[in-house]
Amino acid sequence: MKRQVLHVVHASADGRWHLNHEGGSNEGSFDTKQAAIEAGRSRAKDVHTRGGLAQLVVHREDGSFETEYTYGDDPRRTPG
Q: How far is CA 4 from the centre of its chain?
């Protein structure tokens, strides 16, 4: 089953935090990072509750990786 990956990112163009699907579709925009994280965790938990796999990747304002939350089996971290 394919994992649904969501990203919390900051957009300097509008100064808001966005929850995006990997691949680009926007799930929403939020005034605060915490609100975007809460929405992302809720969405990911919903996917997992329905039997799917999900992951929420949180980025810092500069775009670098901050943390991730995995729902279901952890993705494999080693090549091969």
A: 9
